[in-house]
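#onboarding

Welcome to the new folks! Below is a worked example of what a typical request in this channel looks like: someone posts a single protein sequence, and someone else replies with the predicted structure as tokens. Don't worry about understanding the tokens yet, we'll cover that in week two.

Example request:
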Amino acid sequence: MTTFLQNFKDSSQEFKNVRSLVTAALLIALHTVLAYFVSFQVTPSLRISVSFLANVVTGAMFGPVVGFICGGVGDIVQFVIKPTGPYFWGWTINAALAGLIYGAFLYKKFPRKGKVFDIAFFIRVVLVLVIDTLLVNVLLGTYWVHVMYGKGFVFYLTTRFMKNIIQLPVNIILTYYVLYFVRVIKEKIE
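Example response:
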């Protein structure tokens, strides 16, 4: 438990590092670019996007505090540049919570060097994305859609659950390999 709490303290210290701030700002920009060019609005209440990968990298590199703030800021910047309907603060909370979850469980965790496939890290990625998908995207996201559009919670829960469960394996694989390449890039830079 102390390591978990230490991650929050260490993450808050990342704000004192200029290199961390610049990289986090670039990841927010990447989040915006991915949301603009690689997202598809299926219905007014359902969107498919890979912009979450920028939040995953932010959380893994800089921890839960930076992940939380960058997730929220990234959502606001994304909305300002490419609004998809009216602004709703619930989606900003979702993005911030996702960044917090990624940072809390992936901070300074990458696939081990010398392994093409690190099963322990893969299981960690699966657990993190299942938690994020079920709690943030399905439950909380369904509640926000219910609040915005007024139909029954169960009405939206079904479609959102199916979309997220279908997309989950793709997100897991993308997350694993993106973090694998981030580790390789970090090793070459440092």
